[in-house]
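Hey,

Quick one before I head out. I ran the complex with carboxymethyl coenzyme *A overnight. Inputs first:
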Amino acid sequence: MADAPESKGKLSMADDQKPPQVATLSYGDKQIELPIHSPTAGPDVIDIRKLYAQGDVFTYDPGFTSTAACDSTITFIDGNEGVLLHRGYPIEQLASKSHFLEVCYLLLYGELPNAAQLEDFEHRVTQHTMLHEQMMNFFRGFRRDAHPMAVMVGVVGAMSAFYHDSTDISDPWQREVASIRLIAKMPTIAAWAYKYSVGQPFVYPRNDLDYASNFLRMCFSVPAEDYVVNPILSRAMDRIFTLHADHEQNASTSTVRLASSSGANPFACIAAGIACLWGPAHGGANQACLEMLREIGTPDKIPEYIARAKDKDDPFRLMGFGHRVYKNHDPRATVMKQSADEVLELLGIEDNPTLQTAKELERIALEDDYFRDKKLFPNVDFYSGIILDAMGFPQAMFTPIFAVARTVGWISQWKEQISDPQLKIGRPRQLYLGETERDYVNVENR
Ligand code: CMC
């Protein structure tokens, strides 16, 4: 692939005492002034929106490594310092002092709720946990061995066929109902995808249980024996939801935003987000990480896998390691590691060989120059799979659980985007390297 068109010119910022307000791009005989926006936190942003109109050039940034695709007030990450804030609140405080539904309220509405607002919000979510009964037939159309993520993409997309009264995005009431429905129904959808895959009857939600306990019960209860939810496991589940609730403009969130920029209905947009989350470089990493830890098996095999991860000719990567934004510890991973210790101790399996392998792998990798130089640290997915496995979830359910948690982030970002009166359809341009125009040749002459 050709280099970015940097060679044609240079982008320079005014070196002033005050924060620079304008950047000047010069190339050929052209010089273009571009405004600079200062965020409340994070690096300044050069506004290139008028660049094509003024200069007849595009910028080139596949993978969006240097591009802010939107402005947002929801989540802030400082990847160098290992900071993650939701509406300004550090994730460590939210994980230890708050709980998932309160964080949902914070992400959706911008402030922590007072007691009455929280009660009302919890009530509204609880009232929407059931699925339209006809959706059961929809589940039954899938093969039993379908991956639960395939089922979730299909069922969430199909919600637009079941809930017509909340697909008009120009109506604030419908937007609100769609948001609550998605947050409320996602645990039921994920639990039913699981139940269907193991051939057990679907378990209806129970509104006297909190969000995490209700999800655990819908997954593990059977008609012959009701599942009694252990509060420590429920707390750990809630924390996993909280830690995954939002993460700024990651791949699946950007997918949701791009889908919504065309005016697509919220259920279609969230289905697009689920599809993107599925990949092993994103939400699928938690499943891939546990598979990798199991494959490594025992600590003595770690050096072999570390060598493979460092080998340029081997596509193997340490799953659960590295992050596009964090070039320091992922703050979510620190909380997740503590949670793994707590859950495994509670279950009396603290000497779990997978946990031991994970800890040893982390220790060895963090002492290795390759990982240190490239600033590769364990990410949120490194320990989450161990907790979910200990709770009794099969690996195929790890990413659906991530999807349940991330739904509020997707919805909050979707709401923010469609509330913008300046919203334009997302339409990137390209660096075209294909053939120039040529004449069609009949098949007998080729
Ligand atoms: N193991 C070994 N080498 C790695 C790894 C890894 N896990 N991650 C990155 N590298 C190397 C990579 O080979 C490259 O080396 P070089 O510069 O010599 O070519 C360098 O580090 C930079 O990697 P990159 O792929 O250019 O970085 P990225 O920002 O595009 O990718 C990532 C970020 C998360 C996709 C990548 O680190 C990765 O594939 N990690 C494993 C998958 C994973 O755990 N994903 C979950 C991310 S957190 C949850 C979520 O957001 O969904």
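The mean pLDDT is 92.

Talk tomorrow,
K.
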